[in-house]
Write a structure and sequence with these properties.
With 507 residues, the chain is mainly α. Helix content is 74%, strand content 0%.
């Protein structure tokens, strides 16, 4: 209950703060500028979601169901842009298409640049979920439709797509929430949306109640996204074969379109992965040739420190909630579990803003301390740790523990010798996700970090705010280097696990 209450603290405090602000504070909602900011936010989120969904579904279908040349390689490469923070993707686009870039254009800044960067950074969410659903899809459904004379396009539209709807909807809502919460991309591209307006209100005004009210507007939009996803999900389900083991559907021969599809995949991967890394390497070489190159040893150590603390704290907080949810199911334990998700969908800037209000008025000694920063990370990413711990604990047969107790083992010995070894991998996986997410988190770190405490994310931000892009390259590359092996390993393992279904490798 303590964990759930602490996780819900940002939402509760924002509501209290806005409710006590008076009529003058709420007048911020009637300003023409506020209406315009909300409109731009909705436009950006809707556009990015639509584009990322289209790219992710197309890539997943090409990789899983067609004779695309090198499809296993594309399957691995298409997931790797997840290791690149969205603000780093925006930075690479500025280096390529911005003033002084290789191909300078006049339209980059504003909506086009924010749209392009966020789309390239978020399409892997849709790709991964859709590809996994296609691997599990029972091909008998499509075979039955084909035997009844349906053309392949009609089968995909009327049979395959409805069955994939839950996975596509799940990926789309992740994209929408990411675009809604983004701060780095819109700031670099100078596109005013709610997250940037909240940050500016917080930094420029003595009375920060208007920032809290704008934060509640962002909360409302987040809730609307979740409600729309729940309604759009429909009743589609991923079907498995009757035998219980999924088999691969018919491989579609692309024919003359084979190399067009190859070019599409290559273009997406080039823009989302190759160009950002290439630009950063080029800038890093330029910065390394100068004596005033940025020293990133301290920020790198700080990033590893706070990410490790956040991952450990989130895993520790998730364990009691997971134990209640799995071993003692009831309405109360379900309510406690759901409460831990209360702040997960909130953008980092809103969580940080709420904790700033709380710390400066209720717990001033913890303001701008490492403890408050780690607490913000736990609130933001606790569900990732909870998902890993809960799934692992659900796979542990209680009869094993009962048998050990029946043989005279004490509870602590059962925990150490049986439960912990079985649950450990799942807990570690959840903690790893928290570690990676914390490493890239920007707005919460900017608002809550102790004075003089710099991380790789804040180093990138500090350099880009003064257009010192070469100085931002090395910390950005380190962010990618810390994240890439984990994401690559997870995707490679999934790829090997499904490769045997088409005879290309052993399962």
């Amino acid at each position: 209950m303590v964990v759930a209450a602490l996780a819900a603290l940002p939402v509760v405090y924002l509501a209290v703060r806005a409710g006590t602000g008076g009529a003058d504070a709420w007048a911020v909602l009637r300003r023409p500028g506020t209406v315009a900011v909300v409109g731009r936010t909705v436009l950006l989120v809707a556009s990015v979601t639509a584009a990322a969904t289209a790219i992710g579904v197309a890539l997943a279908w090409l990789v899983v169901r067609t004779d695309l040349p090198g499809r296993r390689v594309w399957g691995l490469a298409a997931a790797l842009p997840l290791v690149i923070p969205s603000y780093v993707t925006a930075l690479a686009l500025i280096g390529t298409l911005g003033p002084g870039g290789l191909l300078p254009v006049s339209w980059l800044f504003g909506f086009p640049g924010a749209f392009a960067a966020l789309t390239l950074a978020t399409y892997p969410y849709v790709f991964l979920l859709t590809a996994a659903a296609l691997h599990r899809l029972d091909p008998a459904l499509e075979e039955a439709a084909r035997s009844l004379g349906r053309r392949r396009v009609a089968v995909f539209r009327q049979v395959t797509l409805p069955v994939l709807r839950p996975s596509i909807a799940g990926g789309s809502v992740l994209v929408a929430l990411y675009a809604l919460s983004d701060f780095g991309v819109v700031s670099l591209m100078r596109y005013d949306v709610l997250t940037r307006a909240i940050y500016q209100q917080y930094r420029s005004l003595f009375d920060r109640t208007p920032a809290a009210i704008l934060g509640l507007v962002l909360v409302v939009l987040t809730v609307l996204v979740l409600v729309a996803e729940a309604r759009g999900r429909g009743r589609g389900r991923v079907q498995r074969s009757a035998a219980g083991a999924a088999r691969t559907g018919e491989t579609v021969a692309l024919g003359r379109a084979r190399w067009t599809a190859f070019a599409f995949c290559a273009g997406v991967i080039a823009l989302a992965l190759v160009v950002p890394i290439g630009v950063l390497v080029y800038w890093a070489q330029r910065a390394g040739a100068r004596p005033d190159g940025a020293d990133v040893i301290g920020p790198a150590a700080n990033s590893l420190l706070v990410s490790g603390l956040g991952a450990a704290a989130a895993a520790a907080a998730a364990l009691p909630v997971a134990a209640l949810a799995v071993r003692h199911r009831s309405r109360w334990t379900s309510a406690i579990q759901q409460a831990t998700y209360a702040s997960n969908a909130l953008p980092g800037v809103v969580i940080a803003l709420a904790l700033v209000f709380f710390a400066t008025r209720v717990a001033e000694p913890v303001y701008q301390t490492l403890a408050l920063l780690v607490f913000a990370y736990v609130v933001r990413f606790l569900p990732q740790a909870l998902a890993g711990a809960q799934a692992a604990l659900a796979r542990v047969d209680p009869q094993l523990e009962h048998a050990a107790r029946g043989l005279g083992a004490r509870p602590w010995r059962v925990l150490a010798r049986i439960t912990a070894p079985l649950v450990g991998p799942g807990v570690l996986a959840g903690a790893t996700l928290v570690f990676l997410s914390t490493m890239k988190e920007l707005p919460a770190t900017l608002l809550l970090r102790p004075v003089g405490f710099d991380t790789l994310a804040t180093e990138v931000w500090s350099a880009t705010t003064v257009s010192a892009y070469s100085e931002a390259a090395l910390p950005a590359l380190l962010l990618i280097a810390f994240s890439a092996p984990v994401v690559y390993g997870l995707q490679l393992r999934r790829s090997r696990g499904t490769a045997g279904r088409d005879g290309s490798a052993a399962p």
